[in-house]
Amino acid sequence: MTEKEDEIEWGPEIDSQFIRQASWTEMFRNQIYRRINLLNAKKILDVGCGTGVITREIREKCSAKITAIDIEPDMIKLAKERVSNVDFIVENVENLSAKKESFDIVFFHYVMLWIENPELAVKEMARVCKNKGYVVALAEPDYGGWVEYPDLNLGKKHIEYLQREGADPCIGRKIQALFESAGLETEISIIAQTWDKESLRDNIEEEWRRVLEADLISDDEFNQRLKLEKESIAKNQRLIFIPVFTAIGRKR
């Protein structure tokens, strides 16, 4: 497989996942944008921008100078194709190149669970944030609080997958402590994210496919789980709840 062919296969898959995640938290992001007066921001840092899904949203909502970073060069390449008038940089949030007090607002969304040293990362974000500025976790999930009925072990399989990949599936509950340790006056909220019938129909196969592709279940188990899922969803008996944390941290 050539590099170009690999990019074509990999890009749409990960981009689709980012779009799905963004759709789950859109209403709460808009509330946060109003709370922190996004329209008046002059300089913004988007951490872990991925393919630029949230970056584009921020770009459309304000006239600030935006810098977006991600540790993966391929992510930055895709983001540049999606969003114009943004400075995209390949960079590790644990070692930011920006000078202290450079940004009015620092954002991240579904990022902290993948960070190797989250305490250092938040301290770096606080360092480059201006006094009285904001460091904002737009959404960080907590898979340790996953509730599902009937219990088909989807949540447990996702936790197993995330831990194997080096992620922290319970990062959501730690956000307040991380922010306060970095000198941020912090207010958290918890999104009660329960999938409705339409969301279950649209997303459940993809959620199980991720487990299958991680070799955590067999093809037969995958087909069996999908059959049970469709039966439960059709009867309006399926429930999945995942707590998602948001945090607004103001630099003291």
Write up this protein.
Helix 5 crosses helix 7. By secondary structure, the chain is an alpha/beta fold. Strands 1, 2, 3, 4, 5, 6, 7 and 8 form an eight-stranded mixed beta sheet that branches. The protein is 45% helix and 25% strand.
Average pLDDT score: 92
Give me the strand/helix succession. HEHEHEEHEEHHEHHE
Number of helices: 8
Q: How many strand elements?
A: 8
Strand content: 15-25%
Structural class: alpha/beta
Taking Cα atoms only, what radius of gyration do you get, to the nearest Å? 19 Å
What share of residues is helical?
A: 40-55%
* Biggest pleated-sheet summary: 8 strands, mixed
Report, as a whole number of angstroms, the end-to-end distance: 52 Å
Shape assignment: elongated
Low-pLDDT residue spans = 1-10
Topology overview:
Blueprint lengths: L2 H33 L7 E5 L5 H9 L3 E6 L2 H10 L4 E4 L12 E7 L8 H11 E13 L5 E3 L4 H11 L10 H7 L2 E11 L2 H17 L5 H16 L4 E13 L1
Parallel strand pairs: 1-2, 1-4, 2-3, 4-5
Antiparallel strand pairs: 5-8, 6-8, 7-8
Would you summarize the structure shown here?
With 252 residues, this protein is α/β, with parallel strands linked by helices. The protein has helices spanning 3-35, 53-61, 73-82, 118-128, 154-164, 175-181, 197-213, 219-234; strands spanning 43-47, 65-70, 87-90, 103-109, 129-141, 147-149, 184-194, 239-251. Strands 1, 2, 3, 4, 5, 6, 7 and 8 form an 8-stranded mixed sheet that branches.
